[in-house]
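Hello,

Following up on my earlier ticket. Below are the two sequence lines again, exactly as submitted.
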Amino acid sequence: MLGLPAETILTVLGAVIFFAIILFLWGLYFRGVA
Amino acid sequence: MADLATIAIISFYCLAMIGIGGWASRKIKNTEDYLVAGRSLGFWVFVLLMIGTVCSGMSLLGVSGLGYKFGWPTFWEQIFVPLSIAFCVIFFGVKLHSITRTTGYITVQDYLAHRYESPTALRTLSALSGIIVSLIYLVGQYTAIAIVLMWLFEIPLWLALIIATLVVTIYTTIGGLYAVAWAALIQSLILIGGVVIMAPLIIFYAGGFTHVNEYMASVNPDLVRPWLTEGMLFTPSYLVSFGVLLIAGLACAPHVINNILAVKDAKLFAWAPLLGFLIYCAVMFLLKFAGFAGIVLVHEGAFTLPDVPNAQDFVILYGIQNAIPHVALWSIFAVIVLAAVMSTTDRLMLTIGAMFSWDIYKKLIIPDAPDRQILFVSKIVVVLSALVTMIIALNPPEMLAFLIWMGIGIMLSTFAIPLLAGLYWRRATRMGAIVSMASGLIAAGVFGVYYQYIAMLPLHFSFYAVVVSFIAMVVVSLLTEKTDEKILDETKTGWFIRCP
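Thanks for your patience. The regenerated structure is below:
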């Protein structure tokens, strides 16, 4: 897909989504305590 | 190359920046207004100031350049650099901002001096290393401005440098952080909008995203892998050290962390990390893809890169020139690069001004200096820092890229451990911080020179220096007397992020 190996697509998307979720959870946590 | 429209667009941008400086100057009543914008920054101004501060001109040209040279294994840079904004806010910002509400810190050196009961030694050491690192970084920024202006107008380097220096110096000197922050708002919007429009045009010109990837795989399969398995660069172990360098190194850079002290309300720390990460991620990925497109365009003969050591840094400029064959549109791209460069340059100059006028002049040389005098000294230092770096940039040192990496490495090696230990570990002591900072500085120099001139290392050189700094902090702190409990309570030291 997109001319890339599956390993590359999964790694890139996985990294972006993983950190976005972590920061989203941080937002929920901090909004609750701020 | 330049026509009337080009000159008009660039002139309008420069005059707008100076106009912001003039508007901001009316808000400056004292040093606090000048150096921390009266602690008035709201959500979007803060988020875009952080993006503008971290995204420099060299990174704008360098991101595409690195993508052109090594392909997908470099995509981690697009994760790590935006994460530095989140790291700075979460691990330094929340607590520093909370302490600042009662202590009124102007610079991060104020915190170090207070937490480690070291009004002279640690403050001087950290201010001086901060000034040196910022000056190194500034030379790189001015060189990037010059590259763009020379490319667009075909003017000599000295003229390009004088124009760029004059504009940034005027609005920074008269408007302080108010001008820097509001200019960053405009500059970051130009940067984001510009990259979102221009990068896809280069990718389409090269045949589309899928074609670019297929072409890269046919040239060298390593170009489309998420990391490399052979060699010294972009291997998994190298990427770990690269991640530490970019995330923590940029987060604790004085010109980045000082933005925290200007925030109006801690509530914005909830969503600033996520928004900063996502927006900057999108911009940096697009720039990287433009660099990938450059591989196709160069191989297919659309253009030839210049015969210079950093030829890859020109790939996005030449890509724009070919994909959008109209000189007036190139000038819009020039404005984008100028915006990226200036948004970092002005913050660096102001940080140097703050560190000298506040940490050295006010706290060491003339403690009873009146506020107006400090403000005056700060403005003079901003102008001097611009002049010194402009003169150095006239003959840019050959190892410029090395110096910039060294600069980020030194920031990480000197500031990260004393700051993190100071905020979270009650056993960290004054001597521990001084030895940690000094040994980190020396180790960064030793490992950096070894890495550059003697032999490659399996990890980024700054990683070794951080380990040295960490060991020094732990060993020396445990061997020396504990810090006064009253100071530890005042500086809210402990294993928590949210302050009770």
